[in-house]
Specification:
- The structure is a single chain.
- The termini are far apart.
- By secondary structure, the chain is mainly alpha-helical.
- It has a single domain, classed as 3 helical TM bundles of succinate and fumarate reductases (Up-down Bundle).
Length: about 240
């Protein structure tokens, strides 16, 4: 874990030496800075999930509707490529922060003095305390994201598509191994969001004894509405001919 953190810390270490942005990077390398970045990247990815699910629900409207949606996206050209690259980078950063905070949390429990010194260390963004469950579910989601890009974006495994995205998506989801892994990954996403949304709100100061219970309930509802929405796509794939 420590070796992985040192590798992940290389970009932050280099950026910290750049005049002008170095002080900002160093602030982000504190426990407070890391938690804020974790919250912001996490909530931004939640926004992406909402938009992505909304687009994919066009599958229920039929082949013409979904292919029309896909064509509109591809018509964006370089803008779409930039958005996809940014989203992937944000996800990698979010996972990297989780790895770093987990390592720092374990080290702090082993040696209390480490906690005092860690604020000045050059890990990707040290300190914090992501739970093991959050890290594990995050890694499962990341693994699915890679598979999703391989199949849906690049179609490297050669699924029959009939020259349209509708057929490709259906054939990918109807593959038994893909379907099972998809459901497992989405269940992991539901678990991840259940804790993550509430935690992000608290980190950003959206917290009050009067409203905390409501925020937790809304977080759970959001998490599992997203999860059920994506799982419904697998059901759709198997239900259609």
């Amino acid at each position: 874990m420590d070796v992985l953190c040192k590798i992940l810390s290389i970009p932050a270490t280099l950026l910290a030496k750049v005049p002008g942005i170095g002080p900002i990077v160093k602030v982000c390398c504190t426990s407070v800075g890391q938690k804020i970045l974790m919250a912001l990247t996490g909530l931004s990815l939640c926004g992406f999930l909402v938009a992505h699910l909304a687009g994919n629900l066009n599958l229920f409207a039929g082949e013409e509707a979904f292919n029309g949606y896909a064509e509109k996206l591809h018509s964006l050209g370089p803008l779409l490529a930039m958005a996809e690259t940014g989203l992937f980078g944000m996800f990698v950063l979010h996972i990297g922060l989780a790895v770093s905070t987990t390592a720092m949390s374990r080290r702090a429990r082993t040696n209390q003095y480490e906690e005092k010194n860690s604020k000045q260390q050059g890990f990707i963004l040290p300190n914090g305390g992501a739970s093991n469950l959050m890290l594990v579910t995050g890694l499962i989601i990341f693994a699915y994201l890679v598979l999703h890009i391989i199949d849906m974006k690049l179609n490297l495994r050669g699924f029959e598509s009939g020259d349209n995205k509708f057929q490709l998506v259906r054939n990918v989801l109807r593959n038994p191994m893909n379907g099972v892994f998809y459901v497992v990954a989405i269940l992991a996403l539901g678990v991840h969001l259940t804790h993550g949304v509430t935690s992000a709100c608290q980190t950003l100061g959206i917290s009050h004894p009067r409203w905390n219970k409501l925020i937790r309930i809304l977080g759970v509802l959001f998490a599992w509405k997203i999860a059920i929405g994506f799982i419904s796509l697998v059901v759709w794939a198997y239900a259609t001919i």
